[in-house]
Automatic annotation (TrEMBL):
Lineage: Bacteria, Pseudomonadati, Pseudomonadota, Gammaproteobacteria, Chromatiales
Organism encoding this protein: Candidatus Macondimonas diazotrophica
Keywords recorded for this protein, A-Z: Membrane, Monooxygenase, Oxidoreductase, Transmembrane, Transmembrane helix
Listed name of the protein: Methane monooxygenase/ammonia monooxygenase subunit C
Membrane-spanning segments: 39-59, 79-106, 118-143, 163-184, 196-214, 234-256
Pfam families named in the record: AmoC
C-alpha cells in the first residue's frame, strides 16, 4: 500500500512543482480573476536568449581572428566546423521532433476558456514587446557584423565564423521557432484553428526563405561579386525577405481584434 502511495505521489509532486513554476512565470493564473501580462516569463525567456547569443558572440570575438581566417586549417575544423555540425544537428532535431509532436498530439476539438485565451494573447504580446529589444541587438551583432567581417577578410568558402553564427545558427533557430509557434497556435487556440493566419505565415516564411536566398548569395559571391557591398543586388533578397517580419503588425491586429471580442461587455444581456 505504501509503495503504491509513493508511486502515485511522485507524479503529483512533479505536477505541483511544474504548476508553481508556471504560476511564478505568469503562464498559469487564477481564471476567476482577469488575466495579467506574463512579464516574468517574457523577461526570463528573453534574458536566456540574450545569454545564449551573448556567449555565442563572445566565442566569435575570441576565436574568429585566431582560428577563423582559413577554412582549410585544422584549427578551423576544430573550433568552427565542429560547432557548425553540432548546432545544425540540434536545430534539425528540434524541428524534426517538435513539429510532428505538436501535430499528432493536437486536440480534435480545441477548447479554451476566454480568460485562458486572453492569457495566450497576452503572452504573445509580452514576448513580442520584450523580444523586440534583443532582435535589434542580434541584427547589429550578427547581420551587420557578417557584412563587416567579409569587408575586412576575404571569404575563402561559404563557411566563415560570422556565417556559421548567422546563417547556420540564428536564422535556422528563428525559422524552427517560428514554425513551432505557427503549428502550436493553429492547433491549440480555437480562434486560429481551421484557418491560416496570413501574417503569421509571412513571419514564418521570412526566415525560411532566407536560407535558399543564402545559396544564391554565396553563388553570386563565388562567381561575380567579390566585394561585400551592402547595397549589392545579390543582397536585395535578404532585405525583401527580412521585411516579412513586419507582418507581426498584422498578427497583432488579429490578436487585438480577438481580445476586443473576448472583453466586450454584453450590455443587453446584463440588463436582461
Amino acid at each position: 500500500m505504501n509503495a503504491v502511495t509513493k508511486t502515485q505521489s511522485a507524479p503529483v509532486a512533479q505536477q505541483g512543482v511544474m504548476q508553481r513554476l508556471m504560476s511564478f512565470l505568469g503562464l498559469v493564473q487564477d481564471e476567476s480573476k482577469p488575466p495579467r501580462m506574463p512579464w516574468m516569463a517574457a523577461f526570463i525567456g528573453v534574458a536566456l536568449a540574450a545569454l545564449l547569443f551573448g556567449v555565442y558572440r563572445w566565442y566569435q570575438h575570441a576565436y574568429s581572428f585566431t582560428v577563423g581566417l582559413d577554412y582549410f586549417e585544422q584549427e578551423f575544423q576544430t573550433y568552427w566546423m565542429r560547432l557548425f555540425y553540432i548546432q545544425m544537428t540540434i536545430i534539425t532535431l528540434i524541428g524534426a521532433i517538435g513539429v510532428p509532436l505538436l501535430w499528432f498530439t493536437r486536440p480534435a476539438n480545441p477548447e479554451m476558456s476566454p480568460r485562458r485565451e486572453l492569457l495566450v494573447y497576452y503572452a504573445i504580446l509580452a514576448f513580442a514587446a520584450v523580444g523586440s529589444i534583443i532582435l535589434v541587438a542580434i541584427l547589429g551583432l550578427y547581420v551587420e557584423a557578417d557584412a563587416a567581417w567579409h569587408q575586412v577578410t576575404v571569404r575563402d568558402t561559404d563557411f566563415t565564423p560570422t556565417h556559421i553564427g548567422l546563417f547556420y545558427f540564428a536564422i535556422p533557430l528563428a525559422a524552427v521557432g517560428a514554425i513551432l509557434g505557427f503549428v502550436l497556435l493553429h492547433t491549440r487556440v480555437p480562434y486560429f484553428t481551421n484557418r491560416v493566419s496570413m501574417p503569421m505565415a509571412l513571419i514564418v516564411a521570412a526566415p525560411v526563405l532566407i536560407m535558399p536566398n543564402l545559396g544564391l548569395n554565396e553563388w553570386g559571391h563565388t562567381f561575380f561579386y567579390a566585394e561585400e557591398l551592402f547595397a549589392a543586388p545579390i543582397h536585395w533578397g535578404f532585405v525583401l525577405l527580412g521585411w516579412g517580419l513586419f507582418a507581426i503588425g498584422g498578427l497583432i491586429i488579429q490578436i487585438l481584434q480577438r481580445v476586443r471580442e473576448l472583453t466586450v461587455l454584453n450590455v443587453k444581456g446584463a440588463q436582461a
